[in-house]
Design brief:
Layout (H helix, E strand, L loop, with lengths): L4 E8 L3 H6 L2 E6 L4 H4 L3 E5 L13 E4 L2 E8 L3 H8 L2 E4 L11 E4 L4 H7 L5 E4 L1
Parallel strand pairs: 2-3, 6-7
Antiparallel strand pairs: 1-3, 1-8, 2-6, 4-5, 4-8, 5-7
């Protein structure tokens, strides 16, 4: 499968680790408002996100941490393309609670927290 999104972490908000320990990661493109940056992983996309929405089963890699998409909200990929924003919930659910959310397979949250640092590459596809 081709890479639909490749981005690099540029900043990690002070509240990101707490959210990640609960299995939630919020991505926001560089330039997010300060109140959103506090809870977000800021990132810079390499190239452009694909027009193709990732299917269920597509891989998400955050550094060495890997998961598979289990559900995707109706507007999630459009928000990625428009403003670089998405909420990824690592709960294994095939039912998303919010239209801008991607659900993914459960992972070791301690590994996730340690992977969330400036310079980490995130890919979807």
């Amino acid at each position: 499968m081709s890479v639909l999104l490749k981005t690099r972490v540029t900043a990690v908000g002070p509240e990101v680790a707490d959210l990640a320990e609960g299995g939630v990661v919020i991505l926001f493109a560089d330039g997010a408002p300060p109140e959103l940056a506090e809870v977000s992983i800021l990132h810079a996309v390499e190239g452009q996100p694909s027009d193709e929405t990732p299917p269920v089963g597509a891989a998400i890699h955050i550094g060495d941490v890997s998961a598979s998409i289990t559900g995707i909200g109706d507007y999630a990929w459009q928000k990625v393309k428009d403003i670089g924003h998405v909420v990824i919930t690592f709960n294994g659910s095939d039912q998303v609670e919010r239209p801008g959310e991607i659900c993914a397979s459960e992972i070791d949250t301690a590994e996730l927290v340690s992977a969330l640092k400036v310079g980490t590459t995130i890919t979807i596809g």
